[in-house]
């Protein structure tokens, strides 16, 4: 009986100790969107790469003993595509939520891997005109109001406050609809993201 009581006391103590050691940090995150040529069912090669940026507040929650945690951000984000040499940017609110696993490298640094969903709310979703090269080329693009994607990335945290990461954003829903005189087709925009953050 005493052994059972002792085991229960130890289990309860551990369950109390782990949450006490959990860390919650708030911070600011910013970086660059490197938008690749999107996947599309359109028969065109006139869609090129483009760049944008993102910035906003974030929260980071972690349990150092087991290395598991999550982060979430509320970002103003610019991304888009280059059509017939004309760049059309999306401006919106991006909300990524990532599950993280961290591995400590001593007292000063740790590395982490992160995966999770990301929602993008387009603040400027009206149809954009594209100057066509010929009568058969694309003439406009209609970006979706809402996009859902999936993130996968890695990064490093230094001195408990500085964080750098690289992230690949995989589209789940369509990003936009291409409109030409002959047809309509959809695109899915794939994005590499390079970020820096400071956690208080």
Automatic annotation (TrEMBL):
What the entry lists under SUPFAM superfamilies is as follows: OMPA-like
User: What Pfam families does the database record attribute to this sequence?
Assistant: OMP_b-brl
Which keywords does UniProt give here?
Answer: Signal
- What organism is the protein native to? termite gut metagenome
User: Taxonomic classification, please?
Assistant: unclassified sequences, metagenomes, organismal metagenomes
Outer membrane protein beta-barrel domain residues are 9-200
- InterPro entries according to UniProt: Beta-barrel_OMP, OMP/PagP_B-barrel
Which named protein is this?
Outer membrane protein beta-barrel domain-containing protein
- Is Signal found in the keyword set? yes
């Amino acid at each position: 009986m005493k052994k059972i009581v002792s085991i229960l006391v130890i289990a309860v103590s551990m369950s109390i100790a782990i949450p006490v050691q959990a860390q919650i940090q708030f911070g600011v995150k910013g970086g660059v969107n490197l938008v690749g040529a999107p996947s599309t069912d359109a028969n065109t090669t006139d869609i090129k790469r483009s760049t944008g940026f993102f910035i906003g507040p974030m929260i980071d929650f972690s349990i150092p003993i087991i290395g598991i945690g999550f982060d979430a951000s509320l970002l103003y984000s610019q991304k888009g595509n280059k059509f017939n040499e004309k760049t059309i940017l999306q401006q919106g609110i991006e909300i990524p939520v990532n599950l993280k696993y961290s591995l400590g490298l001593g007292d000063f640094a740790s590395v982490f891997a992160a995966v999770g969903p990301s929602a993008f709310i387009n603040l400027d979703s009206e149809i954009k005109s594209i100057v066509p090269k010929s009568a058969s080329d694309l003439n406009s693009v209609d970006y979706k109001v809402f996009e859902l994607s999936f993130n996968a990335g890695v990064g490093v945290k230094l001195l408990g406050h500085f964080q750098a990461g690289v992230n690949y954003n995989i589209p789940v829903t369509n990003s936009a609809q291409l409109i030409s005189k002959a047809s309509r087709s959809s695109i899915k925009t794939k994005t590499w993201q390079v970020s820096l953050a400071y956690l208080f």
